[in-house]
Amino acid sequence: MPEKNVVSFTTMIDGYAKYGDMASARFLFDQAPNKDIVAWSALISGYAQNGQPNEAVKIFLQMSTRNVKPDEFIMVSLMSACSQVAYDLIQSMPVEPHAGAWGALLGACKLNGNIELGELVANRLFEIEPLNPVSSPQDVNDVLVAIDHVIDFGLASPSKPAVLGGSHGGFLTTHLIGQAQDKFIAAAARNPVCDLALMVGTTDIPDWRYVEAYGSEGQNSFTDAHVSKVKTPTLFLLGAQDLRVPVSTGLQYARALKEKGVPIKVIVFPNDTHAIERPQSDFESFLSIGVVFKNTNFSCNAGFSEVAFDINKLDKLVSLMTGGNSLSPSLQEPPTDCEIGNLELLEILCKASGKVDVLMHMSGKQ
């Protein structure tokens, strides 16, 4: 006969909960001596997993009156229970809930690992916004209508529109040049979102648009779904320290455009984050945008991370440019006198050398 202690009782409570018999699990819990945090956790988790969120919350409140401090496992179970309550509430609303409500619930499912409920919510989101939950055709159409409106008023030339956007605006920029490929003479994107699925596991806002990682429908949200139609010369401005939008997404998109012959230019700011807000970097990024928009037929050369991996190829060129200084192999200490005018010279030298296809921006210290 097993010893009647809290460990044996907790084991049986957990077993009955996994079997779905919460009545027996609750009976054993009430009989258990000296209930510890594990016993409370087993019962709360059981209720949450068996679709009885209100009971899970009641047990949690009861536990709080006993001065038992909840641990991380109980909090995860409680969040899961609350997600279920939220789902029931949304389902019972007298009006049709909008995508924002479902999106908030999906974020909660992501945080507490409730995959089953998350799939239900994701499917509901796809029903509401079947084509593109982040940048719908309506977003693109709104911008195009606004442009036509400005042209109709005589404030802009119909033959010279260019488009610029950063972050989500960069995401919309790349959608515009893919869906209205004959509209723009040039484009510039600062840290654009180009691969939503990749962001799910790498961004500092992981719950943002988590739904795009699911299924074929979410693929319509990716800008590379339209990459084959892009004709617009495009400048990419990327911060290597960006924790929100991985720099690789912009580089991959730029490479895809280059492979199909679209003129592109990439400038990577090695010490900048998502905002590209260091004064010198911000100034140079907008200066580059102005140059590109004025001279749209720029070369299809730009270069990025290859420089970091084979820096010796550029060492002599940098030395010539900076008057004897060599670039640190780690790229942590770029030449302090590497100014904007010299960047163009370095790009020309790099192109002439034929050894790199993209130039990494090297900004001096502030």
Describe the structure.
This protein has a four-stranded parallel beta sheet with strand order 1-2-3-4, sandwiched between helices. The chain has 15 helices and four strands. By secondary structure, the protein is of the alpha/beta class. The chain has two domains: 6-128, Serine Threonine Protein Phosphatase 5, Tetratricopeptide repeat; 137-302, Alpha/Beta hydrolase fold, catalytic domain (Rossmann fold, 3-Layer(aba) Sandwich). GO terms for molecular function: serine-type endopeptidase activity.
List the helices and strands and how they pair.
Blueprint: H1 6-19, H2 22-31, H3 37-49, H4 53-65, H5 72-91, H6 99-112, H7 115-128, H8 137-152, E1 162-166, H9 168-179, E2 186-190, H10 196-200, E3 234-239, H11 247-259, E4 264-269, H12 279-294, H13 306-309, H14 312-322, H15 340-353
Short structural summary:
This protein has helices at 6-19, 22-31, 37-49, 53-65, 72-91, 99-112, 115-128, 137-152, 168-179, 196-200, 247-259, 279-294, 306-309, 312-322, 340-353, and strands at 162-166, 186-190, 234-239, 264-269. With 366 residues, the protein is an alpha/beta fold. It has two domains: 6-128, Serine Threonine Protein Phosphatase 5, Tetratricopeptide repeat (Alpha Horseshoe); 137-302, Rossmann fold, CATH 3.40.50.
